[in-house]
Prior knowledge:
This is N-acetyl-gamma-glutamyl-phosphate reductase. Pathway: Amino-acid biosynthesis; L-arginine biosynthesis; N(2)-acetyl-L-ornithine from L-glutamate: step 3/4. The protein is of the alpha/beta class. The chain has helices at about 10-20, 40-45, 80-90, 105-115, 120-125, 130-140, 150-165, 195, 210-220, 255-260, 310-325; strands at about 1-5, 25-35, 70-75, 95, 125-130, 145, 170-180, 200, 230-235, 240-250, 270, 290-295, 300-310.
Amino acid sequence: MLKVGIVGGTGYTGVELLRILSQHPEVSIHAITSRNEAGLPVADLFPSLRGRVLLAFSDPATASLDKCDVVFFATPNGIAMHQARSLLEGGVRIIDLAADFRIKDIAVWEKWYGMTHACPDLVAEAVYGLPEINREKIKHARLIANPGCYPTAVQLGFFPLIEAGIVDLDHLVADAKSGVSGAGRKAEVHTLFSEATDNFKAYGVPGHRHLPEIRQGLSQVAGKPIGLTFVPHLTPMIRGIHATLYAQLTAGADLQALYETRYADEPFVDVLPPGAHPETRSVRGSNLCRIAIHRPQGGDTAVILSVTDNLVKGAAGQAVQNMNLMFGLPETLAIDQVPLLP
């Protein structure tokens, strides 16, 4: 049994990790930390976990995380980088669900996240945890940078086109929408019910923190810098990412066959039949990314629709997928749930 620790177990990502890991047959949850809730039984804060998680939250300063095989950081940006080195030196593997290790260019990271990086040498070592592109590297990693929710949906949608070399790489467009849980569990005015419901808006148009992450991933696949316009939107739903992706074709290809072939062996990427329009509720509570391919009026614009659950494939589910790969377990173990409907 793997001994697992979770740092920051009180947010939406943390409780999603607990939901998944509590059902994992090869996992024993050893510690769940929270400064504010130390001593409180987990099930008192999250009644959905009653009978499933019997632990209480522990203070990060006293939690025996060094006794774990793997520690998940479900914390705000800037936390994991201060604790990673000592855990790694003690033989503990780390999966960071925040952004501390995602961006390889330290100057770019510091610009977008507004802080000095505490361990730039570990950034160079960290493996970007998108299994569909880095599966073999993940298997041998001791430090995983779990991808962001928007970047997961956008990159999976664009990869086949870029790998095939059939699109204009200078003018890619990602128009993406997220449910309010993507903003986290902290109290903020814009996510209050009266503010977010019955409303729809774009945000971060001049620049969003996920932009350099997406550009980095797509550029690595392309073998050259790419041009991307990324516009996120907040939608009045709890879970879900819907990315509508646009690319100008530079060569002819059977796009449907291209995607079906690329993702034929991927357990969590579902390429839908021609003409389909995936819905966010079709992946709710699951680790799936569902993709549909369109070429409106047979023109030279490819329109790719990509949907995920931002808390599962966009966060906790993908983190567990990475853990399974790191420890030689079946990749789909504990994360092959059927989506919830309605």
